[in-house]
Amino acid sequence: MCPVDDASNGVDGHAHTNGHTNGTTNGANAAPETNGFVAVETKQNPHIQTSNPYQPVGDFLSNISRFKIIESTLREGEQFANAYFSTEVKIQIAKALDDFGVDYIELTSPCASEQSRLDCEAICKLGLKAKILTHVRCTMEDARVAVETGVDGVDVVIGTSSYLREHSHGKDMTYIKNAAIEVIKFVKSKGLEIRFSSEDSFRSDLVDLLTLYSAVDKVGVHRVGIADTVGCATPRQVYDLVRTLRGVVSCDIETHFHNDTGCAIANAYVALEAGATHIDTSVIGIGERNGITPLGGLMARMIVADREYVTKKYNLKKLKEIEDLVADNVEINIPFNNYITGFSAFTHKAGIHAKAILNNPSTYEIINPADFGMTRYVHFASRLTGWNAIKSRVEQLGLEMTDAQIKVCTTKIKAMADVRPIAIDDADSIIRTFHGNLHRKEDVPLLPGMTEEEKKLFEMKQAELSGEREKRSLDEAADAQAEVPSGKKTKTGVAA
Ligand SMILES: [Zn+2]
Questions:
Q1: How many domains does the chain fold into?
Q2: Quick count: other Cβ atoms within 10 Å of Cβ 251?
Q3: What separation in Å is there between the alpha carbon of 456 and the centre of ligand 1?
Q4: Same domain, 218 and 85
Q5: Does the residue 374 lie in any domain?
Q6: What is the value of pTM for the model shown?
Q7: Active site members
Q8: Could you tell me which residues come within 8 angstroms of residue 175 by beta carbon, excluding any fewer than 6 positions away?
Q9: What are phi and psi of 198, to 5 degrees?
Q10: Per-position b or e across 346-359, b if 16+ CB within 10 A of its CB
Q11: What would the mean pLDDT of 327-339 be, rounded to a whole number?
């Protein structure tokens, strides 16, 4: 619960502790121009999918198309190892989340420190559209402080697992129930929203849990919360518990999933299918240990399930900006494989993928990058490139070549990529020089400054590749002549 104090973390103390520096390449799609990873922009998708085979099966329980987000970067996220948010930064993050359109913003307990209390008051005064919540222990002392901060609602939590009852607060279930009812009645008397959550719900006794939730539902709690505090629950367990709880309470159900075993997004999704109404998230998933369901990852999951709901409700083009803001402040880089904003999230490399993507991006893409203001790239200067990708680059450079010439040029780029890593400029100069050589009496070297050894290797690789290419066209010609069913024809040169 408690944020770490100033002396033990912060900019100086813990910078780069994860081996990350927060350099200029932080975030997404920023890297395609770096050496060895070069890419070309494609046309935008002319065939945006409005329906897809992965759409959820509608049933009366499912809230896939009407879920709400409780954004907890300023509470759970503050418990991340590298997080220290100043008042100014908290306000910046709260405003950005509000612009994005999250339904709720959850803040660290005002009882954690005097500064936390002041920050909570300051954020409540911003007049944001999102409702402001604060997260406190299930005690009257904490509840009294919380209701004075100006929040719209109070989230109370207490450990219900035998581990926490024995080793943390030492209270029995009757005590927990009575304390919960007293706090709920008090917060409601102040006209505020109240959520009651157990901690470590999946390792709590099911009968205890349901008895407790049923009791708080009867006194009019607005939401009950289920928390996979240790990140151990599987999607099937989540579905079962939420489905059972849905039959016991009539209030809303909030869920909170840690990601220790990699199920945080899947668990959030099945919770909604089973009747949960609210999902806790944080930006890039930051939180205790390796964090919780990430806001961006949840958006990736949900846009595939209900594009209309997600695109109308959330300002998706703000996602990268918010992630960069938070990443900068907690001094981490956005992981390369991050949902949507990871630098390779929309980059296609293998020749066969590139060809299909250039024709119709939906072939190898389930999410349209343009929905998030992101760009699709086709990686064209590697040994895996294909002539369709090179053709698209030739057109972008405004050069004219026949398909046969482009195929020869592609072989040269592939061969060169075997000799040394080539950057986007190198690939472009190979294309330009090759194009120039078509009209010159004497060939100019494709890349300047090659050593004798590199030249030899290049010739060798080129010969190998040309051999493969000739063999492939011979095979194709033979296949075309042979009267065999097309499914049985020799497949050559298929990329993974
Ligand atoms: Zn948590």
A1: 2
A2: 18
A3: 59
A4: yes
A5: no
A6: 0.76
A7: 353
A8: none
A9: -90, 160
A10: bbbbbbbbbbbbbe
A11: 95
Who surrounds ion ligand 1 at CB < 5 A? Answer: 76
In this predicted model, which residue has the larger pLDDT, 232 or 377?
232
Using CB atoms within 10 A of its CB, is residue 451 exposed (0-12), middle (13-18) or buried (19+)? exposed
Residues 93 and 169 in one domain: yes
Tens of pLDDT along 302-311?
999 999 999 9
* Distance between Cα 66 and ligand 1 center (Å): 23
* Percent of the chain predicted with pLDDT > 90: 59
Which residues on neighbouring strands pair with residue 133, listed in sequence order?
106, 153
- Residue type for position 82: N
Expressed in angstroms and rounded, the spacing between residue 325 Cα and the centre of ligand 1 is: 21
Q: CA gyration radius for the chain?
A: 28
Is residue 490 very low, low, confident or very high in pLDDT (cuts 50, 70, 90)?
very low
Residue 388 zone, left/alpha/beta (φ > 0; ψ -120 to 50; rest)? alpha
Bridge partners, residue 159, by sequence:
199
Gap from CA of 263 to ligand 1 centroid (Å): 14
Could you tell me the residue range of the domain that residue 90 belongs to? Answer: 49-330
- Strands 104-107 and 40-41, by their bridges, are unpaired
Which residue blocks in 21-172 are alpha helix, DSSP H?
A: 87-100, 114-124, 140-147, 162-167
